[in-house]
Amino acid sequence: MALKRTYRWQNWSGSVSCDPHHRSHPLGIEEIQSEVLRCAEEGERLRAIGSGHSFSPLCYSDENQMSLDDFSGIESADLERRRVWVRGGTTLKELGAQLFERGLALANLGDIDEQTVAGAISTGTHGSGLGFGSLSTQVTGLKLVVADGTVKTLTRDTSGELLDAAALSLGALGVITHVELQCVDAYRLHCQSFRAPLEETLVRLDEYLHGYRNFEFYWFPYSETAQIKCMDTTRRPASLWQPAKLARDLALENGLMWGLSETARHVPAMSERISRFAAQRVPVSASVRDSHQGFTTRRLLRYHQTEYSIPLERLPTVIRQIDRLISALRFRVHFPLHVSFVQADPLWLSPSYQRDSAYVAVHMYRGMPYEDYFAAVSDIFDRNDGRPHWGKQHDKTAHELRSLYPRFDDFRQLRQEMDPRGLFLNPHLSALFDIHRR
After folding, report:
1. Confidence of residue 5 (pLDDT cuts 50, 70, 90)
2. What is the value of pTM for the model shown?
């Protein structure tokens, strides 16, 4: 195992950075166990890190970090049951390509595929579509190296309720080394993007949700415009690869937005006009893509983000309240809000626990002040039974989380039983679970 001295770790957005004493890159299970035991014997803490796409300080550590970037790939596949065991350091992008080679696919994905499998399930990463839960709901088995250095194996067949706790567990129960995922046969998606009036989108919400396999939308503040993205499965051949078109789309979605964002950063008073301008340049497109390529969008711009899950039926009210809030307080914001939809599930710490949910993600371009904006929007979420996405910025306390997540205290008790010394905690998790270091 390579033990690398690191002087600085930073997440994707730049909102979290730290200087751990050690950062390990194990090559196998035995090396993971050895590092866990070393930290336990020395009375130090250890945080496993993924690709750094969490906006919250889940991976922060000034003691020890562990990256599984050298421990990746599909380890075994049961093609008859369409299940695969995947090493925790595998990125979703790598996994998609490896599944496609085997005629398989994940049933659903989010719009970013740079996360590791272990990191993505640990935070409840999700796509959009009321027929699908988060990526964590596709987990049928886990292997963890727990605080005493042993490997604990959980499967849906033998450890159902415990798996409901561990499949979305913030890295607080141990180092997730392997994940078994329920897959489906590979498929193709007919992907569409078009503009629609915001109010019409809210009125036709039920039609969109039940008329398409996948549906999500973006709304640009200070405008009446939404960008609709929807997908359905198709047997049509995949669209031909067109480098010129791909370059043009990338330049439009990232290059143009970068220029507009830099203008807003230097001249914040322009934000309102920039948002309206961007809304009128939403790409109108249609294409057919293989399943592992149809969900994702390249994100070159860096930003801050908070995101909450709310009961599905509250969405129109919440969006209208946010619209009025932004207009009344004249927040300098030009980045769109992203709205996606997730099926109810039984996972203890899931923001979609026992309710079909709409997720509202609020963004601010990096380098622009976001604290007041996020706080004001969070107040609206609070009034509408909002549950924070664990990988996004939020300020919820254990007292607040207890009332939002019905099995929150059950998870706290399980965590205490599995890791009584708090080996896998950090200051952020200690605060979330109201744990004081001994």
Report:
1. low
2. 0.95
